[in-house]
């Protein structure tokens, strides 16, 4: 079974479409690690597309924020402004879908998915110290997380955690990672709609654990077209600009 692993789409339909085009015919089942909405201009279209993929999906902090605006105080002013905009844009049936996304982590066949960390769905796992606790907590040898928008992850060999910089180099689209026995993996597929690791291309992963393989992908998309739509929608300029740099 080959899994398409998506995370942090953030209402960027153009990026999601580029991902689906690149991954066409290469996966059997889709999963989504949350943050379908927030930041981008296409919340309804992204929610509907994820539903059409029948993806196994959990909620991210932006999905939670848009579902219950009492959480909006947890966000910075720019993110909060888009949260309110997104709340108004979402059609009732799509808002209901987002509100009903499961919280926390979820097992998917022989791996697990979580938005932030197994200890706290809203936690950012940036550093090996946090990853160590999370790797111990993970119920499966391989787990996928999102939230940081940084493709790669962490591995636990015995008691030692190391950072995995499994990103395709500029000009390359795929970084293949061989999954070894007796090692635990906490893997981030990267963000589809708002990468923050310095590569502006859309990130995702394809996992085939029966064949011990996870591919980390980056695909280009028409960033300028998304930025134009964001400007027309009146979304905050810092969010428009950051797409250019993937920061
Ligand atoms: Zn996110």
What does this protein structure show overall?
There is one protein chain. The chain is an alpha/beta fold and 247 residues long. It has a single domain, classed as Purple Acid Phosphatase, chain A, domain 2. It contains 8 helices and 12 strands. The strands form 2 sheets. The protein has a 6-stranded mixed beta sheet with strand order 3-2-1-11-12-9. Strands 4-5-6-10-7-8 form a 6-stranded mixed beta sheet, with helices on one face. Strand 7 and strand 8 (160-164) form a beta hairpin. It binds zinc ion. Residues 8, 10, 35, 60, 62, 147, 149 line the site of zinc ion.
Instruction: Quote the beta fraction.
Output: 15-25%
Query: Structural class, please?
Result: alpha/beta
Helix content: 25-40%
Query: CATH H-level name... which superfamily?
Result: Metallo-dependent phosphatases
Number of domains: 1
Mean pLDDT: 96
Question: Biggest sheet: strands side by side, in what order?
Answer: 3-2-1-11-12-9
Provide the CATH architecture: 4-Layer Sandwich
Shape: globular
CATH class: Alpha Beta
Order of helices and strands: EHEHEHHHEEHEEEEEEEHH
* Poorly predicted runs: none
The gyration radius over C-alpha positions equals 17 Å
Give the biggest sheet.
6 strands, mixed
**How far apart are the first and last residues' alpha carbons, in Å?**
33 Å
How many helices? 8
CATH topology tier name: Purple Acid Phosphatase, chain A, domain 2
